[in-house]
Design goal:
The chain is α/β, with parallel strands linked by helices. Helix content is about 35%, strand content about 20%. The chain has a single domain, classed as 3-Layer(aba) Sandwich (Peroxisomal Thiolase, Chain A, domain 1), CATH 3.40.47.10. α4 crosses α5 and α9 packs parallel to α10. The structure holds acetyl coenzyme *A.
């Protein structure tokens, strides 16, 4: 161990002791020093050689964005045969947010959530190594929505990919991000859950259209030697239930055609009762498994942030089966409906805003979804929840960074257009003589 490493490990153990008292190390600008309790963040992205493998993956930034347009249960009464009382009683949902204009897309919602996460963490976009966008409503089959967000934010050093595990996607994303960080392959990873499922909903099908909403949430994970962060995860799948919740058409099994569109098979189709039975069992099982893996007794859980699909699913699983008290389970499904991959990060952000998360807390994120899939992870919260001090200079710098990203993107597109209009490069074969032509 060299001198610097020794100092860092000392700092880490000091921090562990401080953490018990609920205090966390802050730099002069109020941001969390995730590398060590004492060390300052390096100004520039560290080169591969400069990096040390860190043993923890901390959530150091978070943010969410939801569309402004609200669709209430009463609004839905106007378009399908449903009642506000039925929706509230069976799901707990009162209203949901829905994108209103074509410019609002999965990438645009995701990018806005991700900007807030970067601001919260006070990390420059150029430092991010990887961006994972968990989504069930991507911009396109390809390119990845993550790549569009990467360009929008100017994450010039980041790899980008979409993650398809339906509503479990955000938990899958956290697990992958943690793996990359602990392997030393990444220092900063942005995990986004972003959805515009309203564009895949059949607004004449009362069984599904009352359930879903749009939105996005994001967290920034950082390599750290401060103990805590994402500490364990369990992921699972049972593809025998694939047809229980599906968008049948638009993929290779049933490519888009006039027929698929006229039969409505490009919309969400669901066997609600079967999904309900699966969800209530698996949410409890996955929570138990991840707590066992992390070595945390249920009594020491401070907050469960479950996938917000249906209040009754949450009541029948984490509350009743695990006997976790209601005040330790965060629920906001009444405001947003089921926002799929975005529901856990949005709920996390709101729980933080409401003062339900503090340094030293044990959190559990648990989700289920189409596939069928499920996932849970434990998080030892280790960072201050107050937003770092924001100055006009910092805000100006941030605006300039995003404007530069937009300019860079425009410039690259323009250059490509110019190249595409230039004389195509021909690989010309030598002319054959008439003699040769005649002999062949
Ligand atoms: N308004 C009024 N009545 C309705 C509505 C509605 N919106 N929808 C269904 N009904 C009727 C049904 O037609 C049925 O009538 P019937 O008895 O005359 O046949 C009756 O209400 C009961 O229907 P059920 O489907 O049995 O209702 P249930 O209590 O199961 O609730 C629900 C339905 C809310 C969909 C529930 O099954 C559920 O939440 N399932 C899980 C869905 C879920 O979470 N999906 C997302 C997974 S995450 C992802 O990957 C995207």
């Amino acid at each position: 161990m060299n001198e610097q490493e020794h100092e860092n490990s000392q700092a880490g153990s000091n921090y562990a002791a401080e953490n018990v008292n609920g205090t966390a190390p802050l730099s002069s600008n109020g941001a969390f020093n995730h590398h060590t309790a004492k060390g300052a963040q390096p100004l520039y992205r560290a080169s591969f050689e400069q990096r040390r493998i860190q043993p923890y993956a901390q959530i150091i930034g978070w943010g969410y964005h939801i569309p402004e347009r609200i669709v209430t249960n009463h609004d839905l009464e106007q378009i399908v045969d449903t009642q506000d009382e039925w929706i509230r009683a069976r799901t707990g949902i009162q209203e949901r947010r829905v994108v209103a204009v074509p410019q609002e897309t999965t990438a645009s919602l995701g990018a806005r959530a991700a900007r807030k996460a970067l601001e919260m963490a006070d990390v420059h976009p150029a430092k991010v190594d990887l961006i994972i966008c968990a989504t069930s409503s991507p911009e396109h089959i390809f390119p990845a929505t993550a790549s569009i967000i990467q360009d929008n934010l100017g994450l010039i050093h980041a790899g980008a990919f979409d993650l398809s595990a339906a509503c479990s996607g955000f938990v899958y994303g956290l697990s992958i991000a943690r793996g990359h960080i602990l392997a030393g392959d990444a220092e900063y990873v942005l995990v986004i859950g972003a959805e515009t499922l309203s564009r895949w909903v059949d607004w004449t099908d009362r069984a599904t259209c009352v359930l879903f909403g749009d939105g996005a949430g994001a967290v920034l994970l950082a390599a750290s030697d401060v103990p805590g962060g994402v500490t364990a995860s369990v992921l699972g799948s049972d593809g025998s239930g694939a047809e229980l919740l599906t968008i049948p058409a638009g993929g290779s099994a049933s490519p888009a055609s006039l027929e698929t569109v006229s039969s409505g098979s490009h919309y969400i189709q669901m066997d609600g009762r079967a999904v309900f039975r699966f969800a209530t069992r698996i949410m409890a099982d996955a929570t138990r498994q991840v707590l066992d893996k992390a070595g945390i007794p249920i009594s020491e859980v401070d907050l469960v942030v479950p996938h917000q699909a249906n209040k009754r699913i949450i009541q029948h699983s984490v509350l009743r089966q695990l006997k976790i008290p209601e005040d330790k389970v965060y629920v906001n499904v009444q405001k947003y409906g089921n926002t799929s991959t975005a529901s856990i990060p949005i709920a996390l952000c709101e729980a933080i805003d409401e003062g339900k998360v503090a340094p030293g807390d044990n959190l559990v994120f648990v989700g289920f979804g189409a596939g069928l899939t499920w996932g849970a992870c434990t998080v030892k919260w280790s960072v201050p929840v107050e937003k770092p001090e924001s100055t006009w200079w910092k805000n100006t710098q941030r605006q300039a960074t995003y404007q530069a990203a937009a300019a860079r993107s425009m410039w690259k597109r323009a250059i490509r257009r110019i190249y595409s209009q230039m004389e195509p490069l021909t690989l010309s074969r030598p002319e054959r003589s008439t003699e040769e032509e005649q002999t062949t």
